[in-house]
Amino acid sequence: MVTGVMMPTIDPSSNPWLQIYFPLALGEPSTPSQLSLQHALMSVAAYQRAYREGKSKQDDMKRGFYHEQEASRVLERFVTHEHPEIQSLRDQCTCLAAALGLISIDIFGPRATDCTTRLGLARRVIDMYQDERSWESNVLSSMLYQIFRCYETVGSTAKVTTEMTTASQDHSPESDDAPSPDDRNAITRMDTNTAFEKSLADARYFILNSSFGVSWRTMSLLQETTKLGTACSSSNPRDMTREIRSLHQRLYGVEDDPSDFLAPVSSRRTIPRLDTSSHHSNDSNGVFLPKIISDELIENHQLAFHYAVMIYFHRVIPDTYLPHDAESGHRISSRDNCQALVRKVWDRLENIDCLTPRDIQLHRGNVLWPAFIAAAESIRVDLRHRALIWFSKAAKRGVGNTLRAKEVVMEVWRRVDRQMYPDEELVGMGPVDWRVVMKEMGHSIMLT
User: Fold this and answer.
1) In the predicted model, what is the mean pLDDT of residues 118-123?
2) Total structural domains within the chain
3) Which parts of the sequence are annotated with region: Disordered (predicted)?
């Protein structure tokens, strides 16, 4: 029971589960990585059916757990003891797909798990095939590598490093001396020529737009945000002020031209079908939406993700690094206006629900990360109500992570309300960092 709902995409022809994972799991002779992928697919299928249908929930939970254990055991043994250098490209791709399948189990499974464990296993698979750039040399391996990088980047957004010191928070960029060598090097970088963007220069290889609702540009900006956010917690602000302001300007460029941040899906950008001999790759049952509707879904999906990155930027980057509104040239560019960004995320996510037939789940895509970011930063009650309505609908789609994410959000809200004054203006960021709350609750959730 392998279906497109396991990794819902706006464009069914780009569904990795149907067009990559499922075909890789088939064929003869069977290999250890292939066996692991088969078990991973069956585990996700069982867990998802248990949540969605519930007719044989206990049996499905047991079945899902059995296949989960087998998938993990087989792949761990292969990665630890086998000799990957003799594997074909297809075998390498199957091995990575199996590792990504284990991450999907964390997403759909009923238990709270540490997502870094299986992210680490996937990273070991990447690293054991020598040069990481080799994953970008082939259409199939490039797409799997993109999915891994997306999981890795989203996973890194929840990491908490050392707390910001009072001194660094009170630091004023205007009092800086001449830029440091690191700062000067950052200034000279091309805004759009990051390593990740370079690897995605050929748009035909890009798959994250339809599967995760994120354009290549937004994903690159998120990676840069996580990197600078980590640096902010351990470095002096004067080393990064100009680099951060450059990132701020590029993030808010969406106000000038939203279309510049969209990566459209077209019929020419489909995943090449793999040769599975006598086996037939599962498809999406011919369910396709009109192009005008599909394009609208793509726009809302990708802009929701981008606005969430903007919110996340203000969570991890202290205000002292940022220009005043008058300097930025953008209408809602300060931390004080973050509730307006939260509202924009909910508008976009609700648009997706409005445009998606209730009996069709294939076109909703992975939207938990932007929804979680917006929910965790919602301090107005009306925005919190919108978050709860969204979580209620999302929980019915059979994704275990949704309920765990909601638990974290509710705890954030309780802590925020205990710390805020009754007459305090509800326009900016709340006083509670959701990353700290997630860590203290013992959760490490893959937010996809």
Assistant:
1) 93
2) 1
3) 162-187
Contacts of 45 (CB under 8 A, 6+ apart): 1, 2, 3, 6, 64
Q: What is the pLDDT of residue 279?
A: 43
Beta bridge partners of 114: 444
Long-range contact list for 416-424, CB < 8 A, 24+ apart?
416/379, 420/379
Q: Is residue 275 part of a domain?
A: no
CB half-sphere exposure, 343, CA atoms < 13 A? 11
Q: How many Cβ atoms sit within 10 Å of the Cβ of residue 442?
A: 8
Q: Which domain holds residue 144?
A: 1-158+203-211
**Core vs surface per residue 95-131: b (16+ CB within 10 A) or e:** bbbbbbbbbbbbbbbeebbebbebbebbeebbebbee
**Residue 183 placed within a domain:** no
**What six digits make up the tokens of 11?**
């464009």
What is the Cα–Cα distance from 149 to 99, expressed in whole angstroms? 13
Nearest of 27, 68, 73 to residue 45 by alpha carbon: 68
Q: Which helix (H) or strand (E) holds 262?
A: none
Q: What are the helix and strand counts (H, E) for the chain? A: 20, 0
Residue predicted with more confidence, 42 or 423: 42
HSE (side-chain half, CA atoms, 13 Å) at 349: 30
- Structure tokens, 227: 């990197």
Give the HSE-up count for residue 215: Cα atoms under 13 Å, Cβ half-sphere.
24
Neighbours of 295 (CB within 10 A): 16
**Cβ(398)–Cβ(49) under 8 Å?**
yes
Element (H or E) spanning 416, and its range? Answer: helix 400-419
What the block records as the tokens of 238 is: 């004067």
3 state SS of 198? helix
C-alpha span between 270 and 273 (Å, rounded): 9
What is the 3 state secondary structure string of 298-325? HHHHHHHHHHHHHHHHHHHCCHHHCCCH
Of the candidates 393, 370, 442, 399, which has an alpha carbon nearest to the alpha carbon of residue 105?
399
Structure pTM?
0.84
* Contact between 19 and 7 (Cβ < 8 Å): no
pLDDT mean across residues, the chain: 79
Span 371-393, average pLDDT: 96
In 129-240, which ranges are continuous DSSP H helix?
Answer: 139-156, 166-169, 181-187, 195-199, 208-211, 216-232
If you ran DSSP here, which 8-state letter would residue 129 be given? T
Asked if residue 46 is part of any domain, the answer here is yes
